[in-house]
Write a structure and sequence with these properties.
The chain has 239 residues and is mainly alpha-helical. The protein has ten helices and no strands. Helices cover 82% and strands 0% of the residues. It is globular, with a radius of gyration of 17 Å.
């Protein structure tokens, strides 16, 4: 199969996941695109396209926009990113994947035991630190924030908007780093543009699905997705 078809498929599926759940574009697009290109070459174009999709989502979700909802997450992420850079330089990636996988599975177990648990703001700060750290170290910033937001008694629209706003801030910071390091070249921007149409179409499909998901189904879908991610990260650490 031609590499561009694989990248387009990753962008399409990633767009659907992003639109339906509010997260997952980068993880999905990179996981599929890594079949034909190195992850280091995928990260800058996928991140630039991801930011465009996130901004488009914020426009469509503007009725739910409350910047204070994402404030603890963004504040925590700013604290976590420098430590993630240090871990990226000094730690084995497998250790980070084990930590992330265990954290996700533990969080899901706690939610199943106490489904009415309401996460305080301090948990959001901690989730932001973890997301910023892991985003800088391994390119995965969404799951800790999703875990925190799932434990809030907010509407799906409000939770998704807070998540998208947080992710937009984290991805923007990553892009600044890529530009400073000379990693976001014209060739990679061209690759991002080629992936834009399937990603945009997937995003629209995902948002249509999101609008038709009842509250309980939405929570269960996110919980299943995070549990699957936790298992996948543990497997990735040892394979």
């Amino acid at each position: 199969m031609e590499p561009m078809w694989v990248l387009a498929a990753g962008a399409l599926i990633g767009g659907v996941v992003q639109g339906a759940l509010g997260f997952g574009f980068g993880l999905t697009a990179i996981s599929i695109g890594a079949l034909v290109l190195p992850v280091s070459a995928l990260l800058p174009p996928v991140a630039s396209l991801h930011l465009v999709l996130l901004l488009a989502m914020l426009i469509s979700l503007r009725a739910h926009l409350k910047p204070r909802d994402a404030a603890p997450l963004i504040g925590g992420a700013l604290l976590g990113v420098p430590f993630g850079v240090l871990l990226l330089r000094d730690a084995e990636p497998g250790v980070l994947f084990v930590l992330l996988g265990c954290a996700l599975l533990l969080g899901m177990a706690l939610q199943l035991r106490s489904p009415e648990f309401e996460a305080p703001t301090s948990f959001g700060l901690g989730a932001g630190v973890a997301g910023g750290l892991l985003g800088a170290a391994v390119g995965v910033s969404g799951p800790p924030a999703v875990l925190y937001l799932t434990a809030k008694s907010w509407s799906p629209g409000r939770r998704t908007t807070a998540l998208v706003l947080y992710l937009a801030g984290v991805v923007a910071a990553q892009l600044i780093g890529y530009v400073a390091a000379g990693l976001l070249t014209l060739d990679r921007l061209a690759l991002s543009a080629q992936m834009a149409v399937p990603a945009g179409f997937g995003l629209l499909v995902g948002q249509l699905v999101f609008r038709r998901i009842p509250e309980l189904w939405f929570r269960r879908t996110v919980q299943v997705a995070l549990t699957g991610l936790g298992i996948w990260f543990l497997l990735r650490a040892f394979i």
